[in-house]
């Protein structure tokens, strides 16, 4: 298992969160139990004692609100301005660590505030050079394939998993994979595991957590606030 000095986390928080509606601003700054969602997320990582640095990648217009949301937490937390996509923002977060690189890095969605120490420990326990580790939940719903709202067929769910974050990697490997993808203009990747797969890195799955939900819609935030 890596120590806190060897591990860092990049929290991607530069999105606009439009699927949650425009009222209230970006969802990572909306209130959950009286505090911004992003503050809950960062505090969750700080409370584990398993990471040495936390980079929060923000939108260029959000420096003031982000500074306020994270005020007084820790000098381990730094802000970096991101790019127009999640992928470009992640690259910039990784680059900010490159001058003094950690051995390992996790990449996490800012709007998954219910991450816990047990899940992070499972990831770090499985980390070795040469491969990544992601949390995932086995798919339990029946999956349908459809065209124009007409069902074409049922997809066999055995062996299918829903990926979560944080996703953990050797820093040098995922940093280089991101740089290579950016250099080639490849921007279709939906998570960091997909980039590492493209780069030839093996990705291992550990058990995710049903509580580690992503706050995507307005209703998600309302339900989370009732927890």
Would you write up a description of this structure?
The chain is an alpha/beta fold. It is 29% helix and 26% strand. It contains 7 helices and 12 strands. The protein has a 5-stranded mixed sheet, sandwiched between helices. The protein has a 3-stranded mixed sheet with strand order 10-7-12. Strands 2-3 form a two-stranded antiparallel sheet. A hairpin with a 2-residue loop joins strand 8 (143-147) and strand 9. The radius of gyration is 17 Å and the shape is globular. The mean pLDDT is 90.
Radius of gyration: 17 Å
From the helix content, strand content and strand pairing, which structural class follows? alpha/beta
Number of separate helices: 7
Mean pLDDT: 90
Defining traits:
alpha/beta; 7 helices
What is the secondary structure topology, with strand pairs?
Blueprint: E1 7-13, E2 31-32, E3 35-36, H1 37-48, E4 53-58, H2 63-69, E5 77-81, H3 86-95, E6 104-109, H4 117-126, E7 131-138, E8 143-147, E9 150-155, E10 161-163, E11 167-170, H5 171-183, H6 192-198, E12 202-207, H7 218-224
Parallel strand pairs: 1-4, 1-6, 4-5, 7-12
Antiparallel strand pairs: 2-3, 6-11, 7-10, 8-9
């Amino acid at each position: 298992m890596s120590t806190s000095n060897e591990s860092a986390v990049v929290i991607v928080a530069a999105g606009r969160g439009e699927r949650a509606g425009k009222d209230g601003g970006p969802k990572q700054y909306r209130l959950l139990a009286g505090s911004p969602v992003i503050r809950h997320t960062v505090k969750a990582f700080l409370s584990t004692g398993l990471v040495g640095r936390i980079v929060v990648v923000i939108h260029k217009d959000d420096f003031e609100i982000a500074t306020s949301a994270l005020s007084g937490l820790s000098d381990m937390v730094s802000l970096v301005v991101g790019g127009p996509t999640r992928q470009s923002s992640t690259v910039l977060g990784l680059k900010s660590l490159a001058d003094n690189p950690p051995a390992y890095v996790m990449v996490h969605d800012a709007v998954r505030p219910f991450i816990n120490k047990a899940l992070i420990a499972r990831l770090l326990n499985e980390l070795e050079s040469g491969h990544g580790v992601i949390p995932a939940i086995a798919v339990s719903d029946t999956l349908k394939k459809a065209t124009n709202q007409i069902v074409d067929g049922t997809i066999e769910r055995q062996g299918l998993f829903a990926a979560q974050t944080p996703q953990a990697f050797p820093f040098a490997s995922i940093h280089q994979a991101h740089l290579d993808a950016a250099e080639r203009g490849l921007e279709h990747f939906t998570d960091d595991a997909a980039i590492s797969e493209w780069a030839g890195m093996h990705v291992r799955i550990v058990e995710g957590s049903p509580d580690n939900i992503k706050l995507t819609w307005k209703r998600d935030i309302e339900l989370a606030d009732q927890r």
